[in-house]
Amino acid sequence: MATTQYQKIILGLKVRQFRQEKGWNFEELSRQTGISVSYLNEIEKGKKYPQPENRRRLAEALGISGEFLVSPELTQQFAPLGELLQSNFLNELPLDLFGIEIQQVVEIIARAPDRVNAFISALLEIARNYSLRDENFFFAALRAYQELRANYFEEIEQAADAFVQQYSIPVDGGVPAALLTQILESQYGYHVDAQGLEPFPELQSLRSVFNPHKRRLLLNNRLNERQRTFQLAKELGFNVLGLKERPLASNMLRVNSFEETLNNYKAAYFAVAILINRNAMVRDIRNFFGQKTWNGQLLLDMMAKYQASPEVLFQRFNVLTSDFRLEKIFFLRFIHDLDRDAFDIDKELHLNRRHQPHASGLNEHYCRRWLSISLLNSLKQQHGEALSTYPNLLTGIQRAAFLDSGEEYLCIAIAKPGYPTVGRNVSVTLGVLLDDRTKRTIRFWDDPAIQRTTVNVTCERCSLADCAERAAPPTTVQKREERRRMQEMLDQLTQK
To answer: What pLDDT shows up at residue 205?
Structure first.
């Protein structure tokens, strides 16, 4: 939000507050100042900033000094709003992506400042208590935007199609890294250094770093072919889409703005779109879903065909919404920290609505019955903790029925070591709500060989008795039951 816009909003809030304190409507303030009602309305909404003479008239009529009227200072009633308006967080919120103007937000707040300011103060306190930073909100806003668009962006698809046609990119899999390197160097003036990060042991967890001054792309020499190809394709995405504000490191060590977060996602989307041709992928998924029985090898065959990692392959399953009309789906990526034997969700996406399996920021223990976690446990047992190569991948399928809601999901997952990062394994999961459309689309949904499992979100919130996989006691359930018994006793004492 530009400084001039901030000034408009602050001045408008003051005019509104002192007009209402005097009990005046717009007509009365117009009579007192000689300023038209329509212009006063625009001032209060933060859309217009009055000229000096009109500012003088307003201050005089409202009984405040001209200096206070134009100062950034707000009365105590609006002080929390002033802090929020000046914060970088509000400046960076992508309200325009959701069709919202900052003036609309301010107008809502101004209608009931005491209650809304208390709400804002509570949100800020929660953010501090849970150590939430700007980047947490940026990533949450990005997920909301992806969900709003059903994770399908036709404009990027078209740009990818044009690029594929222009440079004769293979459309049936196996895009060579050498071809993408040649395009980056010849068309965009890059120097690609496949060993660029080798001299820097502190950066071995990064996959790539871009030096904009020398136009050098430094790659981690430990990347396998598919990882290297993706980094090159993503770098092409920044250039083809003209994305100027961008991270310079592959894993976004520091998030500077929402625009940077969004552009990073767009470049990755472009990369997936040129590496896995949409039409070819639709044919392969249709064949996969058309099988009468579950065949995980077909999933691995698709990965081999497109030379894609599980994350890239599952990202391309975004065509489920556009071409298969499957909209009630979720994607999760689990990280298994082998040293701590801890499981965390670091990426998630929910389409159509918020689905049952989701991330928890409360350090609770995710349900060990989930397919994602059972595959990771199997991977650890089969391959050990020190594995640093790209092994045979583990695939699995599960019909997961949630204990409380009864909703059932068909979950498909792939687990692999987190190479080149040591000490961790990764699993990605696609979940589809088992409704009538899903059952018509995925023929193998009722394959008797598919395990049916009752699951929940976290152990702490699960009332399932005698669970062999339980990793923590049901403390939240116990507290809820204790409060329920207390309420029953209170009702007995107070209703006699």
So the answer is: 84
**Residue 411 backbone dihedrals phi, psi, to 5 degrees:** -115, 130
Query: Is a pLDDT exceeding 90 seen at residue 24?
Result: yes
| CB hemisphere CA count around 102 (13 angstroms) | 21
Q: Which residues contact 60 (CB under 8 A, 6 or more apart)?
A: none
DSSP label of 458: B
What is the tens place of the pLDDT at every residue in 412-427? 999 998 877 778 899 9
User: Which of 265, 260, 232 has its CA nearest to residue 246?
Assistant: 260
DSSP track, 52-94: HHHHHHHHHHHTS-HHHHHSS---GGGHHHHHHHHSHHHHH--
Task: Name the DSSP letter for residue 167.
Answer: T
pLDDT of residue 381: 83
Give yes or no for a contact between 378 and 354, defined as CB atoms under 8 angstroms apart.
no
* Rounded Cα gap, residues 62 and 35, in angstroms: 13
Q: How many residues does the chain have?
A: 496
Task: Map out the domains of the chain as residue ranges.
Answer: 3-132, 148-275, 293-479
Give me the percent of the chain exceeding a pLDDT of 90: 48
The CATH architecture assigned to 148-275 reads: Orthogonal Bundle (1.10)
- Write down the pLDDT at residue 80: 65
Confidence class for position 354, pLDDT limits 50, 70, 90: low
Q: Which CATH class is domain 3-132?
A: mainly alpha
